[in-house]
Amino acid sequence: MASSEELNDDRIAFGALIYKLDMYFKEKEVRIKLYEWEDLDAAYNNRRKQDEYNDKVRKSDIFIALFHQKAGRFTIEEFDVAYEEFKKKALPHIEVYCKDIKEGEVESEELKEFKQRVTDLGFTCRSYANKESFKLQFTEQLLQYIKEQSVTTIEDDILKTNDDGIVTFAGKRIAKV
Asked: Where exactly are the structural domains of the chain?
């Protein structure tokens, strides 16, 4: 996952979601791991830390980029690495999410240009209102991806929403909409 610090709360909530999804899919022999830049060893090893993270991006099956008001240079670099790898081997599957701009917030010119570039490349910038809607959208996309890849079978009713707007995945709460 690539994003700036401005989306730290969304990233933490997403990490908790990934843990729940991985617990379910592990039984089906599918692993879902979240790699974030914070997970890398901070010790110097004669390489740029960004290059180490880019290696993780290249080896991933799914790449997720989150944006809100800005598009940081490292997040854009990670997208570019994912895109170059995608052109070579049709992986990683690339997902770009942009958190909605609220009153009083301003979207940077760099982000506007990046979103146009992503669209020109044929990808979709999915918008989301809050971390709850992001978690739900990602889970829906992940289920679709897994079904398309025929990695494992998934029950049709695995994702449910009750009358109170609580969304569950395999009986575990993942979001409220």
From this structure: 5-176
Half-sphere exposure for 69 (CA within 13 Å, toward CB) = 9
What kind of fold does domain 5-176 have according to CATH?
A: Rossmann fold (3.40.50)
Question: Structure pTM?
Answer: 0.89
Q: Which residues does 98 contact at the CB level (< 8 Å), separation at least 6?
A: 66, 67, 68, 111, 115, 125, 126, 127, 128
pLDDT digits (tens, 9 = 90+) for 144-168: 998 888 777 888 889 999 999 999 9
Do the beta carbons of residue 152 and residue 146 sit within 8 Å?
Answer: yes
Q: What are phi and psi of 163, to 5 degrees?
A: -65, -25
DSSP annotation string for the chain: -B--GGGHHHHHHHHHHHHHHHHHHHTTT-------GGGS--S--SS-HHHHHHHHHHH-SEEEEEESS---HHHHHHHHHHHHHHHHHS-SEEEEEEEPPPTT----HHHHHHHHHHHHTT--EEEESSHHHHHHHHHHHHHHHHHHHT-S---TTSEEE-TTSEEEETTEEEEE-
Q: What is the pLDDT of residues 79-115, one digit of tens each?
A: 999 999 999 999 999 999 999 999 999 999 999 999 9
